[in-house]
Known about the structure:
Layout: E1 11-13, E2 20-22, E3 26-31, E4 37-40, E5 48-53, H1 56-65, H2 67-72, H3 78-91
Antiparallel strand pairs: 1-2, 3-4, 3-5
Helix pairs in contact: 1-3
Amino acid sequence: MAQPKQRKIPLRKCVVTQEMKPKKQLIRVVRNKDGEVFVDQTGKKNGRGAYISKSLDVIEQAEKQQVLNRHLNAKVEADVYDELRAIVEVQD
């Protein structure tokens, strides 16, 4: 009997660590066409997306080095980083 086909797990690259990880282990930050930057927990919103690992260290590093600003070509406000931290803390 044939084995059920294994579903392919979508991988994405963390913009900070450059590691490829399953989408579920990353958080997506989006810049829409109005230039607004926000956290997209569904992973489905329209706009330029950047993925970041679910780790406080990685979020701190992203904020310090302004990684998301470069990837999204937009100013990423502190409240976006606060929201990222809150999401990570809830899941720990």
